[in-house]
Write a structure and sequence with these properties.
The complex is a heterodimer of chains A (about 900) and B (about 170). By secondary structure, chain A is an alpha/beta fold. Helix content of chain A is about 25%, strand content about 15%. In chain A, helix 11 packs parallel to helix 19, helix 17 runs parallel beside helix 19 and helix 21 packs across helix 22. In chain B, helix 2 packs across helix 3 and helix 6 runs parallel beside helix 7. Classes of the chains: A alpha/beta (about 900), B alpha+beta (about 170). At the A-B interface, strand 7 of A face helix 4 of B.
Chain lengths: ~900, ~170
Amino acid sequence: MAKVVIDGVEYEVNPDNNLLQECLSNGLDLPYFCWHPCMGSVGACRQCAVKQYRDSEDTNGNIVMACMTPAADGAIISINDDQAKDMRERVIESLMISHPHDCPVCEEGGECHLQDMTLMSGHNYRRYDKKKVTHRNQYLGPFINHEMNRCITCYRCVRYYDDYAGGTDLAAQASHHHTYFGRYEEGVLESEFSGNLVEVCPTGVFTDKAFSEHYSRKWDLQTAPSICAGCGTGCNITPGERYGTLRRVVNRYNSEINGYFICDRGRFGFDYVNSPERIRLSPEISDDVEKKLEQFKTDDAIGIGSPRASNESNFALRELVGEDRFFSGLSDSDHEAVQLTLALGQDAAFRSPSVKEIELADAVIIIGEDVTNTSPRVALALRQSVRNYAMDLAKQSQIPAWQDAAVRELAQHDRSPLAILTPYTTRLDDIASEIVLGPPSQLIEVAGAVAKAISENAPTISSGDDRVAQIAKYLAEAKRPLIVSGCSAGRIDFIKVAANLARALSEQRQEVIDLCLTAPEANTLGMSMLTNEENTLGAALDKIRRGEARKVIVLENDLYRRAPHPDVTDALEKADSLLVLDQLPTKTTEKATLLLPATSFSEHEATYVNYEGRAQVSFQVHQNNSGALPSWRWLSKDRKENISSLTERLVKCSCSFEGIKTLRPEIHVAVSGMQIPRQSHRYSGRTAMRANLNVHEPKQPVDEESVLSFSMEGIPPGKDATILGAPWSPSWNSNQSISKFQEEVNGDLKQGNTGQLLLDRDKSDTYLEIKLDVPKADGGLEVALVHQIFGSGELSAKSKALQKRMVDPYIGLSKADAESLGLSQGDSVSIDGNGNVAAVVVRTKMKVGTAALYCGENDIDHHALGETVHLQKVASSHHRGLGNLIVSDLYEEGY
Amino acid sequence: MSGNLIASTARKARKLTEEEVHEIEHEMELYPDKKAVGLEALKIVQKHQGWVSDESMQAISKFLEIPVSDLESVATFFNLVYRQPVGENVILFCNSVSCWVMGCESIKSHINEKLGIDFGQTSEDGKFTFLPVPCLGDCDKAPVMMVGDDLHRNLTHDKIDELILTYRKSKQVE
């Protein structure tokens, strides 16, 4: 710790940081634009000018940029010095010269960092009366609006998009007063993380296009702290509701997981909540629904759980049907893989790294998991991990880590090692040191050989690949190696070999090794923790077919995504009665004899377990008005059941859920025991909202379960970030106000709950056996499943914005395979002749013998396919086409 | 199959000429990484093509394996990388302080009249493009201008007439 004097007051600061960061960490207001806690300083905007004095004798001092000055011990500065204040006011005056006066129609208005900083700097009169510089805006795709006239050239957008997120299609163009931030030409912003531009831009150049269609001011949105349901990473989000519909999703800071950024699936994939197709309680059944439900509450019912439903709902179902009759809602192969993931999650040799910890890795191997498309936020963290080499270099050269331009200049293109073992090119290839491309069986071989090269005790697997020794070397020598895999590829051997590799490293280094196994859905791990290992979906379907289960309850799950379609149809038709609870219609709901509407993620309070085994609570944001209830409420024996008592029983039943007890804050933590408002104190129009229907204002809905209320009355969370939906602090209306809730900038939230890790690491195990069975040479191609960030998530794929970026099912082939099968780019093929049709995508870097299969929205019954497939050309049929496909190795000649 | 079924991120690029490739490859030897050659490559292509078209941008981007948006950053940063077609002869006319003191405004009006073009325009016959520059570093001979690679000093109306005649005749004065 160092001491600095700021305006005569002594503060303890971290000398490794810059003065701006330390001023903010100490709660002082100092305006800034270009600096960002995750992106360091470049000194571009000159807004954070302060006066620095040589020593206590110095009365003149000189102006420095706080963001470019280390918080060195003994520094004496002044924020309030007249000259410094004048400088900041003049700087903002010049930044504002061409800024339009369009705040009333600008979507950033009310949560605009530029508005806040302008006010804070004291600039309130525009002296400039000449013509402003104007620009042409670009079409940037369905997610982002572009309004370049508002730009103040802080360069944050390109520093985020290019430098931080690895985008290649947004750049600063031209210079001085006509600097332009845009694409080379109009078109979709390609990065999977483009939505963060909305929050990174300090003003309204980049705004949320999906939000534009039903815009509302920040203060008019009803919000609550929520968890993204897009994948198994568990990013924290703040959804906002107005007039009964969900309007937008923004990032919610969690120091362990998403920090300041989320992916575009999370940001733009929520709209299914508002879908007119949402299942409603049909009037015919609403009267005797209780009676109808009663018939399922008997001993001969079985329940099938759901990886996208909460712990509470899965538990309620399990309680209803009994532990032995509660079955996994995953495909059999996923179930096996996730059970293994859970077992590895209790192994003392490994650590399941949080997203923040992933950023600390300095040597990484990814085995068979396309993280950009399955757990996107993890991919963004891996992009930061490869910069640890640069950080080390900087340290050696005594360059502070926050000196962003200097650190990047120093390291140039040198990065920490990252090996990617993949059947097809991925969106992380640009930062990889080794890319091993091949069919899945070959990749398992390479990973197995790396493990063997690290520890003699590992199972003997050899590979002819000459990169094995190199990969083994840097993993063994790294300060913090990381192994990433997952079950999305449908190959449990990827996870086994990843575990063996981690174990080999653990043996060789005698330490706990980071093993990140991603989970595909919001509560994959939670549901699996409640499921007995032998209770597979296959076993459930068998039971139904054999007539041993006449009554079936399916919880928020489309079984057609989990098992071969004929098997599911066969089983469901054999059941006497089928109760399905879900949000949107699926093939499974079509078969239901009783269909009940379930609330979506933003309509209930619930807990979810992410890939690390971290349980988090997601609060209800708004009410469902179409009769839907949380599934657990439909299923519980007592309709007056309350979530606290259900949680208590869950903890009692399964001791691994002990940790979730502390997640839900209790009412006595709030001021005077008053509920905390979900609406801001500026929430407008409450009395007029329904005036078109009735001039009598209805009573606000009462929330009897939560610490939050559906009201603007009460005291908003001043410090407690656990219940902080939308951060706000006096003078700080934008999302940058989050620094007022952090212990230190980019650090832990004050009283913030980052969730509870549920899995105890108290077991030890040995190497897993891997069967290296190369698929039979039957002339077929080895299947590697492909996932798309926009399309593979079951619910998010129903969102309008995401649908504009989705593609048809396709099959990626090498040029040689395509030629020998007489196929060319864009042809339609039938897969194994059973009605599965995909478009051919010829890719230059695919290995001969591999077929990369994207199943669309479950358009292809991939569970019915074997490890190899045969293709046959059929008449072309296209729906969405493949115009939105972004791959780096598309074969282009000749079409 | 139709090209619009699959939209690729790469677009049609023109083929770089052998000379261009040769010169760019020479530059590549002088720099530690390809990205650094972007500006030189733009200059080389401009030297041969007169300007840098969208197709040339794509070609350089592919050849150097750098994103075309990064290349555009460089191309648009430098005013003398032409992203629009220019005339056979580019007149870089100094309108900075010394030349202004020495009466460049009247010279400029004379050129405007003779060629029928103002700053930023190209004459109808495609022979001349007229651009302002801030200083050519030859203030003691002001007013000055450059045409192509040649510097012309102590400009007068007569001298302008003479130069226009000469440059109209040949593409480049040897």
